[in-house]
Amino acid sequence: MKNFLKPYLYIIPTLFVTNMAWAQGESSINTEDLAPKDSVKASDINKDVEKIKVTGSHIKRINIEGPSPIQVLNRDDLDRSGYNSVSDVLRDSASSSFGAPKEMSGSNAAGVASVSLRGLGESRTLVLLNGKRLPTDAITGAVDLNLIPMAAIERIEVFKDGASATYGSDALGGVVNLITRKDYSDTEVSLQQTINDQAGGQKFEVSVVNGMNTRKLNMVNVAQYRKNDEIFAKDRDFSDDGLSLTGSPGAYRQYIDADNQGPWIVDPNCPTGSVIDLGPAGQRCSYKFTDFSTSLPRLEQQSLMSETTYNMTDSLKLNLRMSGTQKKIFWQYAPSPGSYVVDAATADTLGLAGIPAGSDVQFNYRLQELGNRQSEVTTNAFNVIGGVTKELGDSWELEYSTSLNRVFREDLGVNGYGLEDKVETAIESGNFKPTNPEGQRGNISNAKYVPWQRSMSEILTNDVVASGEVFDMPSGAASLAIGYTNTHQEYVDNFDEESLKQNVIGSGGSAGGGKRDTNSLYSEFSVPLASSLEMQLAARYDNYSDFGETTNPKIAFLYRPKTWLMFRTSAGTGFKAPSMVDLYAAEGYGFPTVIDQRLCNEQKAAGGVTPACRPTQYLAQFGGNEKLEEEKSVSYNFGTMVQPTKNLSFGADLWFTKIDNIVDVDYDAIMDADAVGLNLAAKGITVNRNETTGEISSIIAPNQNLSGKELYGIDLTAQQSLYTGIGKFRVVVEHSHLFFYKYEGFQGLGFKNILGEKGKPAWRNNITLGYSPKENQEASLVARTIASHDKEIPEYGDLQQYTEYDLRYSYDTERFGMFTAGVKNLFKTTPPLDDSDTNNQLDIELYSQLGQSMYVNYKKSF
Fold first, then answer.
1. Buried (b) or exposed (e) across 498-532, using 16+ Cβ within 10 A?
2. Torsions phi, psi of 746, nearest 5?
3. What is the distance between the alpha carbons of residues 336 and 753, in angstroms, rounded to a whole number?
4. How many CA atoms lie within 13 A of 600 on its CB side?
5. pLDDT confidence bin for 1, thresholds 50/70/90
6. Mean pLDDT computed over 333-362
7. pLDDT at position 588, please?
8. Strand, helix or coil at 498?
9. How far is CA 38 from the centre of its chain?
10. What span, in angstroms and rounded, lies between the C-alpha atoms of 788 and 790?
11. Model confidence at 20: pLDDT above 90
């Protein structure tokens, strides 16, 4: 009990100090009228006022504000954003503390974009569509928001509290519930074009929404097409000078075995200005790969959705929704870098300076002869859900639904890839000589190869829930919800045979697959303890076929001492089941970028050059682990909302989250653990090193329950509207501040507050100023600010606090449609750049690489 209450010792005094400060200012929050309805019988309320189901609860209620904090982005908010994807809208939210992954070149998940709340990671933010779970990506383990057509969304509810007691796994950081359009009876056409002040990244979108609404039938159909052009790295100042140590010409060295090689010897044909000195490790020939690479891939997507609701009787309703999306991604990288070992007999014929006779040789060379690497990724997603809702008496409702979500993806390496064994054969046969001058090296066209990856993820869900009032109390009716969910999940990830053998230069892969069934029982109880006090109790039991079972409770209170004042508090446990990718992925290989802390420390102690102290890519072997356990969390929230007038409101929510047993492979933490001598082998981790130079040759690190996190922060929101003789003014403030973010990346390192390190700003703030001179006109200015944080190498300084401004104006002619024009990044500011990590200067999860964007939109309803 003492540990359970400990976070409140921080939360309660901080909250009162915050309220005292606000009482002297003009800040406010955005909320509906906080005043409760007139005191009447619950049955009378049910007759006169429609209740709605709000994210975070299975019980319908009148007010959207409940015992836990929730943020609502309505259709107008989505339109005001100027974006054409849900992921971009959510990434700009202040509660997206550290940003979130988005489209990027060079990845098997190049077109995937997701959401992460409070810096807990995209796999710990549950994403729902109309309250139902969506399938996670077969590679990232998170929901791909790019598969949801933004034109189909009516509103987004962001639940900022732990919700495993309601929804089960993954809801540790919160829940994002996408609510589709309903009760629409017009036809709406929308077109939008976005251009940038710099080359690339242009966007185009067209959507059509058609609705039909009668007494018995409601149908909404949505079609959307969008295209985002690619951006080449050379077209942005911050990404046009990326260098690789694998060049053309390249380098070579004596090869004894996998852990013992001589120093690198640079090819004599390498230009003097391209030679990189690696100290004891020798010299390499650098290569400016950004001249050929896209940093942002091209995206083309078309989506269809149809939702039908049919009222068979006044108490029986049928629902059917079908949707489909096809998304195509194209990205390009520089020619494939690779290393090739040839036998001594061949090496002796090449006359390589510095290589003893009779020695095998390893070449490091970029295969320009094969051309640029190009990949095309096609994703097809399908969703169907059917359900029936039956009203039972005056207050009870029984709902049954069944849904199938399936995502297929194919990734083809259409150009620039080759087979390592065929390149080595070409060298040994004399058909290809990598140390000859360019144009005289020979032909390796027979080494060309088209690698592929095909993946499928699927989730089949059957859910039944009954909810209603169980008994009356003096202050209202107590309500109960009880339900059962059966879920079948499946994923398959296949690669071509050569990729599985790690024989494809510049690519690799590991097949995997798995199935799981989950049976869940859940209940929720809402009790009006007094006219101003509500208690919510929730609990959920989940049984997984592949790793075990878990039970998670939650308790929450809502207190309204005055019609203009509300307090809320909650406490609960949560969990995240290990994903099937974490459990069942086969062995694979990648090239994470880390600093070799052990060798870096040794080089610093020795004096001279310290190449190991710079971020470098190393070969890493990873894979699934069927012995993984679930992640476990505990979370607390304490908040207040104040609405002294109808047009003035503000509030705050203090929260604390702790997660243990996190499934992770943190290569930076592994480097730290290796540097201080922790036992890596006990966790199944090995760092292999060159016996001569001490360089890392490879890292073996399968998935493990390795780390933990503790977070404490506050969310502030405010809104004020002012009506004058010249129009309506509106101010909205959204602020999210972390007080600490303690993290232990490898057991034994100890918890460390990593807040302020690269990619982990302490706070984000959004301020919106709106002005409507007339009802059919609106102008808005948005300022989005991200706090400063360190560079990759802290000694280089920090990435400064950054503010970006957006300006928008819309005019509804009523008869001829609505015209909108906007500018994102009004003052052409450049995000903070990291000169200590030249190949990754811009943090694209936090900042945009587009530059200044200008867009125009036309919308017409018929």
1. bbbebbbbbbbbbbbbbebebebebbbbbbbbeeb
2. -150, 130
3. 39
4. 15
5. very low
6. 90
7. 75
8. helix
9. 43
10. 7
11. no
- Beta-bridged to residue 180, according to DSSP, are 153
Alpha helices in 368-489 (DSSP H): 420-428
What pLDDT is attached to residue 32? Answer: 43
Report the C-alpha gap between 232 and 331 in whole angstroms. Answer: 9
Q: Which two tokens stand for residue 557?
A: 């209170």
Q: Write the single-letter amino acid at 484.
A: Y
Which 8-state DSSP code applies to residue 432? B
**What would the mean pLDDT of 771-778 be, rounded to a whole number?**
95
Please provide the DSSP assignment of 263-287 as one string.
Answer: -BEE-TTS-GGGEEE-GGGBEEE-E
Average predicted confidence (pLDDT) for the chain? 89
Cα 795–chain centre separation: 29
Contact partners, residue 174, CB within 8 Å, separation at least 6: 95, 117, 118, 125, 126, 158, 159, 160, 161, 162, 163
Give Cα separations from 383 to 85, 323, 398 (angstroms): 18, 5, 23
Q: State the average pLDDT over residues 243-247.
A: 88
CA–CA separation, 40 vs 476, rounded Å? 8
Q: Are 692 and 262 in contact (CB under 8 A)?
A: yes
Nearest to 294, CA basis, from 246, 330, 247: 330
Q: How many CB atoms are closer than 10 A to CB 381?
A: 22
Peptide bond connecting 249 to the previous residue in cis, omega within 30 degrees of 0: yes
Structural element, H or E, at residue 9 = helix 2-23
Domains of the chain: 2-247+286-335+371-416+450-587+623-665+702-861 (2.40.170.20)
Largest Cα–Cα distance of the chain, in whole Å? 97
Indicate the DSSP class of residue 591. -
Nearest to 548 by CA among 523, 573, 575: 575
**Mean pLDDT within 835-851:** 87
Inform me whether the pLDDT recorded for 28 exceeds 60.
Answer: no
Alpha carbon distance 370, 367 (integer Å):
6
C-beta of residue 353 within 8 angstroms of C-beta of residue 268: yes
Task: Report residue 34's pLDDT band, with 50, 70 and 90 as the boundaries.
Answer: low
- Segment (H or E) for 429: none
The answer to whether the beta carbons of residues 289 and 240 sit under 8 Å apart is: no
Whether the Cβ atoms of residue 611 and residue 278 lie closer than 8 Å to each other: yes
Please give, one letter per residue, the 3-state secondary structure of 287-350: EEHHHCCEEECEEEEEEEEEEEEEEEECCEEEEEEEEEEEEEEEEEECCCEEEEEECHHHHHHH
The torsion angle over the Cα atoms of residues 419, 423, 424 and 425, rounded to 10 degrees, is 100
- pLDDT at residue number 18: 36
Task: Give the whole-angstrom CA distance, residue 83 versus residue 150.
Answer: 9
What is the pLDDT at residue 189? 96
pLDDT tens for 44-100 read 444 445 677 888 888 887 777 788 999 999 999 999 999 999 999 999 999 999 999
Question: 3-class DSSP state for residue 704?
Answer: strand
- pTM of the predicted protein model: 0.86
| C-alpha–C-alpha distance, residues 595 and 593, integer Å | 7
Contact 861, 639 (CB under 8 A): no
Has residue 212 got a pLDDT over 60? yes
